[in-house]
Specification:
This protein is of the alpha/beta class. The chain has one domain: 3-Layer(aba) Sandwich (Rossmann fold). 32% of the residues lie in helices and 16% in strands. The chain has six helices and seven strands; from the N terminus they run E-H-E-H-E-H-H-E-H-E-E-E-H. The strands form two sheets. Strands 2-1-3-4-5 form a five-stranded parallel β-sheet, with helices on both faces. Helix 1 crosses helix 6. The longest helix has 15 residues. The radius of gyration is 16 Å and the shape is globular. The two termini are 20 Å apart.
């Protein structure tokens, strides 16, 4: 029997027709206004992973431009598209038996320069969920409770440095969640191209196949 896979992600994991219909996709068959050589869903990192490892993709909860926390670019409100909003909608009771759950975010928090805050593992306030570190704790607390039998991995974009990277690694250590830290991913306009997608697939596959 195939292992089942779920993804909670941002633009790097989107593809039109493979995410919820009301989510924004960065990748599609016709490309977009930003130069990139991606032209087919089979080129995505997750399609290649599913094919190589014989996984069945059950849920791809990925939204282009989405941050983990409830703060967006120019400090705008992101409470309708953040990871901590969407995880309830797409990763609830019906997906609790996933074999593998891959979380791949933080890029937009990093690019947008959202407030960072500090780690906090209970009793979050609305204001704290506008900050990256407490929101990341909140997300991992929910995912580890609702998907207690799933193997959860956190993927860290190689573009992310400083406190956003450090908090991801520290918080994941608290929850005993392995981090897959990507290296030297080829990109165009900040997004993985065909070569970059293959590199992500190879690095993720190598890590979870250990």
């Amino acid at each position: 029997m195939k292992k089942t896979l779920g993804i909670l992600g941002d633009s790097y994991s989107t593809y039109l027709g493979w995410i919820p219909a009301d989510y924004e996709a960065w990748y599609n068959d016709n490309g977009n206004s930003c130069e990139n050589d991606m032209t087919a869903v089979e080129q995505t990192w997750w399609w290649q992973l599913c094919k190589a490892a014989d996984y069945e993709l059950i849920a791809n909860c990925s939204y282009s431009g989405s941050p983990v926390c409830n703060t967006w670019y120019d400090q705008a409100d992101a409470s309708e598209l953040s990871f901590i909003k969407r995880m309830y909608r797409e990763l609830g009771e019906e997906t609790k038996s996933l074999d593998i759950l891959l979380v791949f975010g933080g890029t937009n928090d990093f690019w947008a320069g959202v407030p960072i805050g500090n780690e906090k593992y209970a009793d979050w306030t609305k204001e704290e969920l506008k900050e990256f570190a407490p929101a990341f704790c909140y997300m991992m607390d929910y995912l580890t409770r609702t998907h207690a039998t799933s193997q959860i991995y956190n993927i860290i974009n190689d573009d992310i440095t400083g406190s956003v990277r450090e908090w991801q690694m520290r918080i994941c250590e608290h929850f005993n969640i392995p981090c897959i830290v990507l290296e030297n991913i080829d990109k165009e306009n900040g997004h993985p191209n065909q070569r970059g997608m293959k590199q992500i697939y190879e690095q993720v596959h190598a890590f979870i196949s250990k």
